[in-house]
Amino acid sequence: MAEQLSYLFCTRTSRVLAENIAQYYGQQLGKINFQEFSDGEFEPVLDESVRGGRVFLIGSTFPPADNLLELLLMIDAAKRASAKSITVVLPYFGLARQDRKDQPRAPIGAKLVANLLTAAGATRIMTMDLHADQIQGFFEIPVDHLYASTIFVDYIKSLQLDNLTIASPDMGGAKRAKNYAGHLGAEVVIAYKERKKANVVEEMFLIGDVEGKNVILIDDMIDTAGTLCKAADILIEKGAKTVRAMATHGVLSGKAYENIENSKIMEVIVTDSIPVKNNLSTKIKVLSCAPLFADVMKMVHEHRSISSKFVI
């Protein structure tokens, strides 16, 4: 039996990351012709045969919604081109914060996106640090949920910080912080916040002692950085020696760059799951998730276990 071929394609806004993934994977990205109409409609056409092969479509679905639509059209194109399997590689899964109905008449956007990806023809999903782990259950197809901890833990160790403490900026991230602390032999503190509306923190309290400690705030994403900066202020007020922040997805909307630059945070580390304008702040450092995704994609293609990539 002939070996199944693999093909890599990407959305336009995720091209830089996809090129890095392709380099580590050891294969060039496939060509896509984009036809654009004057009203804004676009049509991605795969420029090579993928019949009977395994197709990897790489694209984070951050706003605008065109990024998601582009990916859906590419999935449909691969399906209609008779690809045997279609693995959608979503370094950042957009709308993941809409994982439940938390108020009357609200949508569950994450479930809708899961339905759209499956209906378009995806046969496997590969993503990293979902905002809520239960989103995996929204799919009826295999989901490979990777963790940026495989990237961040090594970086934290390289800092060689004494009196290290891992902090969660909210109660929801307590489990994540505890897992990091377990791998690093560190203590855990939690910032308890109360919100009145999205992106606005009303009050915040600290649970735990940080006197004289080097603290690293761990989160899955940084949006406006309001919560992060407020947490850093409280940590410094309570006697923390230094405060750093790590988040998988650098959404960085609104005044995020300004907030970070003017904050008491020494350094903010994110991955390149979303393109980051790190020239807007001297405090932002980007670690690439390309090697992680390339390794797992190769393992999946070769039908090998990927459990070694699940550090946390």
From TrEMBL:
Keyword entries, A-Z: ATP-binding, Kinase, Magnesium, Metal-binding, Nucleotide biosynthesis, Nucleotide-binding, Transferase
EC number of the protein: 2.7.6.1
Record PROSITE patterns: PRPP_SYNTHASE
Gene Ontology CC entries for this record: cytoplasm; ribose phosphate diphosphokinase complex
Protein origin, superkingdom: Bacteria
Gene3D superfamilies for the chain: 3.40.50.2020
Keyword Nucleus carried by entry: no
Catalytic activity entry: D-ribose 5-phosphate + ATP = 5-phospho-alpha-D-ribose 1-diphosphate + AMP + H(+)
BP GO terms, sorted: 5-phosphoribose 1-diphosphate biosynthetic process; purine nucleotide biosynthetic process; ribonucleoside monophosphate biosynthetic process
InterPro entries in the cross-refs: PRib_PP_synth_CS, Pribosyltran_N, PRTase-like, PRTase_dom, Rib-P_diPkinase
Class of this enzyme: transferase
Record-linked SMART domains: Pribosyltran_N
Domain Ribose-phosphate pyrophosphokinase N-terminal: 8-121
GO molecular function (one): ATP binding
Protein name as it appears in the record: ribose-phosphate diphosphokinase
